[in-house]
Amino acid sequence: MPTPDQLVNLEDWNNYVQGSVDLSFAHLELSERDIKRLSKTFKRLLTACPSLYQGQELRVDGLLKTHSQLQEIGQSSLMDFKESLTRV
Amino acid sequence: MSELPGTISELQSLLKSGQLSAQESLQIQRNRLSQHASLENGFVDILEDRGPRVSSNAPFDGVGFAHKDIFELEHRFAGLGLGHGRSTTATHQSICIEALHQAGASHFGALHMAPMACGATSQNEYLGECLNPLNAERVVGGSSSGSAVAVARELCFASLGTDTAGSVRIPAASCGVLGLKTSMGLLSTKGVYPLAPHLDTVGILARSADDLEQVLVQIKAHEPVDQKLQVPALKEAKDFDRIHCWLPSKMLAASVCTQMLECVKTYKHAQITEHFKEESNLSALAETLLYQQVFQTHGHLLQDESSKSNCPKALQEMIVLGAVLPKSWSIQALTSRAALLKQFLENYLKDHDFFMFPALGIDLPRADQVRMGHAEFDAKKLLALHRFMGFVNYLGLPCLWLPIAKDSNGMPMGVQVLCRPYEELSLLRWAKIFIGKRFGVQCVTRMFTAVV
Fold it and tell me: With an 8 Å Cβ cutoff, are B232 and A86 in contact?
């Protein structure tokens, strides 16, 4: 996975976006316009929150192949968060 | 008597004194509805009165409400901004709506919203737009558009909406009504169609801080018993007034800065911060979580062509974003929330009770300037509507939009004020005093316009 610094031109970003599409959604057949729009959003989010990239260095992507695994993480983290709201 | 007062509290005084009966009050409101309820004024469907409730002499006897068309009702599927609601024998009423019913509230209608709650304006390819009662050329914010319009038009006393990334506060700000986004989990979302469950909250729009407080308290008092075990309680109201104000002057119109400064300087314990360094981080994480959650909740709509054709464009775009975001980003957004909440409270609310910050940051735009596809469309103005909203949902905190002045076009200018979790009652007590001192009235809408 390239670092944000290595993504210097639009083509790099486009490849980055296409590489991260969930396999179960390959049928989305994103148009060039879609990819451009998504690239812009990726870039904007990474610029606003560079720490998002740090998560990728953990190579979590490689370990998590499905969104259902993500949902499990979501459920437990939501419970943690709700509990923290009542504690503060 | 042909006209009613502007707030629930004033109406209750009339009812209590015997000058008006609950039936007469409802008749006056129904008459008004028959003249003015329309899509332009926020109404998708007008509802008939339901049968008798458990108790008589309930606090909201004689008080009419109408709600965003996202709540499941007895025998009615929500229309979700895609069309009219559908009859059914099978649905369960939303917990919040049922609680209001038990508190005596009459439910007048289902209100306009952005399709499936996806939109910062009232733009709606299925229903058309509703109109801003203060000035029809100006935008109505979304997604709880009809709630703000109906409350501002005085077609109901208060309305429930939902807020996932500003959907109560933005419409409230555009129509000059008070909009309260509640603490995450305080009001049950059972029976509310989800957009992004980790961020979704039920909110309230009304014309006075007292009315917001009454609605909130009565929902909590009339929740079904088993819900009480699962949801947190409101904290007792306290006389808080120490304010930490984020004033990012470079991001705001000069007039907004001036008015915010004027508000803050009247408080003895006030601190002004130019830089809220965590904001961009928090907003990006909020956005990431939003896309991930929308994908998780609605991704199936893009699985085949028939369901895709019924999926609003804005929602499709969010689903696709959720599908392509690296999963590590989503994990980070999901797992870092508790620590970031703690950090925020430590940095900004340790020595203060409230955090005041901008709402729109600019004068309210014209509707055409934020209408996608229009020649006058200006993406920056659309962004300005929700720029300062999402991080609040990410942190799960309660937040109130309230007016502080009029902008250069005579439209409402306001701020957001948030506080620690479940301290809504202290926030509303403070707001009541603030509004009273600043405007000399409690019914905020009557500062902006003559009622139709």
Answer: yes
